[in-house]
Give the backbone structure.
Amino acid sequence: MKLQVNGAFHDVDVEPDMPLLWVLRDELNIKGPKFGCGAGLCGACTVIIDGQAVRSCQTFASDVTTDVRTIDGLAKGDTLHAVQQAWLDEQVAQCGYCQAGQIMNAVALLENNPNPTDADIDDAMSGNLCRCGTYPRIRAAIKRAAATKVEA
Ligand code: FES
Ligand code: FES
């Protein structure tokens, strides 16, 4: 099947029910999305499809018909995406394992709601778990990024 990821088309020879996360990491060597729970419970594997944050571990490759955006394609050359820059400025990451998923979830939030309230942030981010407890810094970074124009 053909899969578009971060604007580039790839031919992949996989079973239709292979989870997208497996295709990205093992077939295409796109390692931004992480395997956490494999059950839709942690958000480490989050990508954006059709403007929505999606758990790639719960998405069949054959169900993907439009471009898949991963953190690997977020920066433009040497210029970080506003959300990545905000993450750096707020020094959000601790171990870092969950952060690619957190960032992609935050990007989808801000593209759909450029000025989220605290409640909006909590609601949108509640499915992304962080064992290091970086939640306060994640919220601060989202607010910082919201002050910048976030473009799709
Ligand atoms: S690995 Fe997909 S939600 Fe946890
Ligand atoms: S930074 Fe360690 S799990 Fe989130």
Observations:
- Residues 93-99, 130-132, 134 surround FE2/S2 (inorganic) cluster (ligand 2) (CB under 6 Å).
